[in-house]
Amino acid sequence: MDILTWLLVPIVNLDLLALIAVGTFAGIYVGAIPGLSVTMAVSILISFTFSWDVYPALALMIGIYMGGVYGGSRTAILLNIPGAPSAIATALDGYPMAQKGLAGEAIGIVTVVSFIGGFIGIFALAAFAPTISDFAIRFQPRDYMMLGMLGILLVGSLSGGSLVKGIFAGAFGIAIGAVGMDPLTFTERFTFDIPAMRQGVSFIAVMIGMFGISEGLMQLHTIKATAVKQKIGRIIPSWASVRRHLPLGAQTSAIGTVIGALPGTGGDIAALMAYDHARRVTKNPEVPFGKGAIQGLVAPETANNAAVGGAFIPMLTLGIPGDAVTAIMIGALFIHGLNPGPLLMTSQPDMFWFIVSALGIANCFMLIFGLTGIRFFVKVVEMPRTVLLPVILLLSIVGAYAVNNSLSDVYWMLGFGVFGYFLRLYGYPLAPVILGVIMSRLLDDNWRRAIISDREELDRLFMGILSSPLSLALFTAVVLIFVSKTPLWGLIFRKKG
Question: Which residue has the higher pLDDT, 284 or 249?
């Protein structure tokens, strides 16, 4: 059989086609509900599909994965509650557009650029998998540690110019992520001898509280305000609008693909780095970033969807998961007697090209389903606040409880919601807190690995950074972010006149 035949398998088989469609549709709405993560949905599916043939099982999981990454943007735009961590950056400009009555336009452009970004990531998977994997495998523990620091600093720089507040928020998130039992020494960290804290704090509960509950509390300030009437006359964006943002979309899709191919990263980091890139390269935007800039939607949504294809690259060529979902899929492949890794493309090339084809089909279904149901979704933000606030609270409680079926997560969510409310009042950004919680384990583990690999000598660690071009580039980027926020930088690069 040749490559074309393998690519056609999920297209000519109507059962597989239907499973991809059902998975994509379900994924969009699972991704749109805070707390019902794609990771959770795929992990649950394994228990139902382990007795299936491998093609149908993968078809359903791939559909849910592709649809779920896109679906997180829905509630991010309409309610300022990201349905998934990869939609955190989308909320920064999507929600302000909804407040202006442009929710339909925002969802429309997000759907189209997500489709474009998804195909760029899939193309990279098909064409450059070995090359990108060779690049990803060069990352040392110190590089992953600095990549995590870079991600937090980048999102911290989105805090309206105050890097200090951004760093504080990110550091607070890292501390929250460290709560619980130390995975190496099994000692308690930040538990204060409270048994309930030994299992740590769910980042889903933190995310829903920070964005959902705090938003509800902020809305109390304008409880009597008239709901914004959404303009939904044109949902599908014009070709001129799409073409105008294609260069930026191509750049951020490349960022998403590369970041997605780095094991343990994923679409959330890709989206935030792409958003920061858009802010740096966009000169004189029609609307400022954070106030409803279209570029603020194009960048993260192309990146997080391109990261889907990127995440499969290390999974299929190295046997290393690109993110949490592909980690679960590796388990599914093992259950079905397959061994993802360097030999997969040579011993079972049909599986590689089936996955590529299934991703492409799911991306097409995402475009179709994504452009339907928008008129129903935008009605959410047209509801009176006296109705909308209880809905936000209910969604937040259900989403937090659904993670582990635990009331303690609900209490955490409510507590962080109140804390997030006060952070907003005093101008502290929320996104670095969430990213800090997510990145805490990556920073902790790779710091220890870096120290152990360098024989517990810090001077060896720093010499390793200076001697490696990749490490030096990341270290330089971290330093430049610090320096760029100092008065000295403004004096050096201040424009004349």
Answer: 249
